Amino acid sequence: MSSRTPALNLKTINPLILDVHYAVRGELAIKADKYTQQLANPQLKSGSNTNNVETLNNEVEELPFKHVVTANIGNPQQKGLNQKPLTYWRQIISLLEYPQLFQDSDKKELISKIYPSDVIERAKTLYEEIGSVGAYTHSKGVLAIRKRVAKFIEERDGYPADPESIYLTAGASAGVSSILSIALQEGDGCLIPIPQYPLYTATLAYLNAKPLPYYLSESQDWSMDHETLLKAVSEAKKNGTPVKALVIINPGNPTGACLSKEAMEQVIQLCYEEGIVLMADEVYQTNIYDPSHRPFHSFKKILKSMPENISNSVELVSFHSISKGVSGECGRRGGYYECVNISNEVMEQVYKMASVTLCPPVSGQIGVDLMVSPPVKGSESYELWKKETDLIHNNLKERSYLMAEHFNKLNGISCNPAEGAMYLFPKIDMPKKAIEEAKKRGKEPDVMYALDLLDATGICAVAGSGFGQEPGTYHIRVTALCPETKEFIGGFEKFHNEFMEKYKD
Amino acid sequence: MSSRTPALNLKTINPLILDVHYAVRGELAIKADKYTQQLANPQLKSGSNTNNVETLNNEVEELPFKHVVTANIGNPQQKGLNQKPLTYWRQIISLLEYPQLFQDSDKKELISKIYPSDVIERAKTLYEEIGSVGAYTHSKGVLAIRKRVAKFIEERDGYPADPESIYLTAGASAGVSSILSIALQEGDGCLIPIPQYPLYTATLAYLNAKPLPYYLSESQDWSMDHETLLKAVSEAKKNGTPVKALVIINPGNPTGACLSKEAMEQVIQLCYEEGIVLMADEVYQTNIYDPSHRPFHSFKKILKSMPENISNSVELVSFHSISKGVSGECGRRGGYYECVNISNEVMEQVYKMASVTLCPPVSGQIGVDLMVSPPVKGSESYELWKKETDLIHNNLKERSYLMAEHFNKLNGISCNPAEGAMYLFPKIDMPKKAIEEAKKRGKEPDVMYALDLLDATGICAVAGSGFGQEPGTYHIRVTALCPETKEFIGGFEKFHNEFMEKYKD
Predict the structure, then answer these.
(1) Where is the Aminotransferase class I/classII large domain (chains A, B) (predicted)?
(2) How many Cβ atoms are within 10 Å of A141's Cβ, its own excluded?
(3) Which of A40, A170, A444, B228 is most buried, judging by how many CB atoms fall within 10 Å of its CB?
(4) Beta-carbon separation of A18 and B244 below 8 A
């Protein structure tokens, strides 16, 4: 490399980029990747370099674990977790990828021995509607799919939905970042829950908008406390920050809490009074553990059930995704958002910005279609689909309960059981000596805890500081996706007890 | 809707959004969509509304054409154009979507009657490398695929490539917007060709960066004129605008021009001297009509062939895509960029920003893999692949030549033949009276021309003003993708002659 100063360096690039933080895939994930590679290629530890694979340093001894347990990311289908994709989905998409399978006379007969007839029929219908999955679609997404999304919303909520106000996206993240980047001016305030999914702080940092944190109440099962929210609003106003938007994640990530109808009404009332746009991240809406006790209500439904002056004016954008739920199709990148009460002039801007990115991935659009219209009862594919989705629901729920129960048995940990989503966010009562040690290492105490946990057990969990937490409290986020829950618990328990012992007063 | 002022209106949203323009999918595309819907559902013209489909007004008479000819977007596989997807691609992806096809003993045998054995083998290998296509991958994309991209680049250029500097993306657009948003500070200057693909002006407007236009030389086959480029640089410096980046589209969109090696060396020299980052949009690199006369050279190759002080310091990002070339898989959203000579500290920021968007669509990543490593000569799938890709190359070339030839026969049109890409950008000698009429209608003259063309013939072409053009000149961009080239030419000729007659002096 020459000694000429590069045109791009940390002083010359977009300074807002430097303020972006995103813990879920940071240092810890990089280290876990290295361990995974090392376990797959044991010769790597000798430092035998290839050009292509980053190697650990030569000092590394054999690892004290056999595999990396990826409890850091809500990625159900990844290796090691292996949540089985829904057969119905994959059958239909495989046909759409290679339509000759149902078009060519010499293939049709063979295919009918493999694929159920309702799958073949549905693939044909989708093919007529979409055409080739290799073509750009409308920038909003395929109209026929948006119509079925509208129908899904109508049936879920009991209120009409307009396909022209529904945009298909490359996952919920793409939708969130697009809408926030339109809605927020530099310096605008955006209320976000703490703890939160770090996409929000990352996006706000990039937009030079102000995150206005409102703390969720850990002592009350991570519920929203309306007084706290009001305080955050008045605080912002006192500081001259316009409160433009309010983000709510329901069911919560990382908390797993589901909002009550009453809490939602209060929030909407506040948005009405203060002229705040409501951003409802509802990607975990089907991941509800006990719907009879704590069902999911969409913000659209609650909004539309309120008096007309409110229901026809509060601006709401609701986000959904195929990455979570029972499909877990993260890699396909599919989702949608519905805009409610957004003015036409702003909707035109939303359309323009969507058109610059051409169109969402067609495979993700098909995923959205399959999510909003699963096989109907009585159809050939229904029983298998039901069996597969029930298993996924039950697994998540059982693991989540089991893990929470065990966390609460350990000294120095307390954990609110989750009501939904796919995470737990246990609190670590961090010993003083551990906090001092972390300081010496130049790390947040919970980051040190998570890194040590990974080094000792191969368990990959994200430190609470990546999501935000009350100052002086420490957490980690773990997913409830690991099939070997007991192995996870055993490894975790051993590490935690040793950690507490090591740093005890 | 209540009378309460909406929180989101044109005064309160992000003001930079208002400055974004994107002609390719603007008014013209919306009108063409309506015509397509009207032709598919003739009852629409009576104004019988459905909630879901926008209707034309009641006055609309039967349309003077039978179908809409979509010559506005480089979308080879769309309905009406129907470029056939490559069989090899679709076979492999269909297997990866439903791996039971090659895993389950009861399906394997049937499948072996449909799929060539090399396809099945490759799908198995990819499955081992990737796992489920429904899982998030590494934020940079699957390592095994990035390694094959590096190999492709090495074989193309004769210089090494590092998989860690290669990022898979959701198409080239996503990569361009991500890199520009990192590289540019507010107020930074970015040299862009005029005419250009409007993604660049749209992205720069959003970033509040300054587009620094350099005009391509229409009288010299749309070549880059170095003096013009130098003038744009010194002009910017005189105005106190830091010249941070230079965008080059090669082969050109919308011009179809391919750069000579000498022009490229001059550009690189300039970047070296001025400390400018080079952004090479090389998405049409395989769409070359006459490689013996005007071959494609990558900027990476030319850069690496230059003296060491230059080759090891000029910062280059090169973009590629599966949407163009012979694959034309736009809807899959796949591409990559390679970063050359970018400092490690900046590469860390690139990685961080990629991780916020989680990962590119896996289906698009697989597309990149198939693009960079097609079936090898002698393999079972090779002959069909060769036949299909040859046909696509030949069709594009023949149509492009034929269309250019015909344009040049018409009065008041001149058209540089294209050397590559998939567009033509003919110049319309706009009659004064047409310019006056356009003024009355509040439109750019070429926008009026394109809208009238659509109304009269169903041919959808984008006005040159969407791409930029020398003041006082008027163009349209048409793709060379329409199978009914002669029908296109006939309809166009009739409209154009009538237009010229109508507005003659």
Answers:
(1) 117-480
(2) 25
(3) A170
(4) no
Nearest to B332 among A110, A349, A361 (CB): A361
Q: What is A130-372's CATH topology?
A: Aspartate Aminotransferase; domain 2 (3.40.640)
Q: What are B154-166's pLDDT values in tens digits?
A: 999 999 999 999 9
Q: Is A343 on the interface with B (CB under 8 A)?
A: yes
Give me the residue spans of the domains in chain A. 15-83+388-502, 130-372
Express each pLDDT in B130-142 by its tens digit.
Answer: 999 999 999 999 9
Which class does domain B137-372 fall in? alpha beta
Q: Do A7 and B308 touch (CB under 8 A)?
A: no
B171·A110 Cβ contact <8 A:
no
pLDDT band, very low/low/confident/very high, at B37 (cuts 50, 70, 90): confident
Q: Using an 8 Å Cβ cutoff, are B450 and B436 in contact?
A: no
Q: Does A161 touch chain B (CB under 8 A)?
A: no
When CB atoms are compared, the residue of B2, B95, B107 closest to A114 is B107
Do the domains B15-83+388-502 and B137-372 sit in the same CATH topology, yes or no? no
Contacts of B79 in chain A (CB under 8 A): 131, 135
Taking the mean position of all CA atoms in its chain, how far away is CA B233? 26
Residue A45: pLDDT over 70: no
The nearest CA of chain A is from the CA of B73 a distance in Å of 9
**pLDDT at position A52:** 39
**Separation in Å, CA of B152 to nearest CA in chain A:** 14
In this complex, how many residue pairs, one in chain A and one in chain B, have their CB atoms less than 8 Å apart?
A: 318
The span from the CA of B274 to the CA of B282, in Å, is 22
Say yes or no for a CB contact (<8 Å) between B110 and A107.
no
pLDDT at A44 (0 to 100)? 60
Instruction: Name the closest residue on chain A to residue B328, using Cα atoms.
Output: A134
pLDDT tens-place string over residues A226-273: 999 999 999 999 999 999 999 999 999 999 999 999 999 999 999 999
CATH code, B15-83+388-502: 3.90.1150.10
Chain A residue with minimum CA distance to B244: A7
> What's the pLDDT tens digit per position in B441-485?
999 999 999 999 999 999 999 999 999 999 999 999 999 998 888
Q: Per residue in B289-333, pLDDT tens?
A: 998 888 999 999 999 999 999 999 999 999 999 999 999 999 999
Please tell me which residue of chain A has the smallest CA distance to B185.
Answer: A14
Facing residues of A338 across strands?
A166, A318
Are the Cβ atoms of B308 and A203 closer than 8 angstroms? no
> Which pLDDT tens digit goes with each residue over B375-423?
999 999 999 999 999 999 999 999 999 999 999 999 999 999 999 999 9
Residue carrying the six token digits 């507005």: B503
> Is the CB of residue B212 less than 8 Å from the CB of residue B229?
no
- Rounded distance, CA A441 to CA A462, Å? 18
CA distances (Å), origin A434, targets A402, A428, A452, A457, B3: 27, 11, 11, 18, 57
Cis peptide, bond prior to residue A251, ω within 30 of zero: yes
Greatest Cα pair distance in chain B = 77
Cite the DSSP H helix spans in B186-260.
199-207, 226-238
- Mutate: best of A90, A132, A344, partner B, most B CBs <10 A: A132
Q: Does B494 touch chain A (CB under 8 A)?
A: no
Q: Which pLDDT does position A196 carry in this prediction? A: 93
Omega before residue B195 within 30° of 0, cis: yes
A 73-92 near B (Cβ less than 8 A)? 73, 75-79, 82, 85, 87, 90-91
B315 at interface of A, judged by CB pairs closer than 8 A: yes
Rounded distance between C-alpha atoms, residue B504 and residue B499, angstroms: 8
The rounded distance, in Å, linking the Cα atoms of B340 and B338 is 6
According to DSSP, residue A288 is labeled B
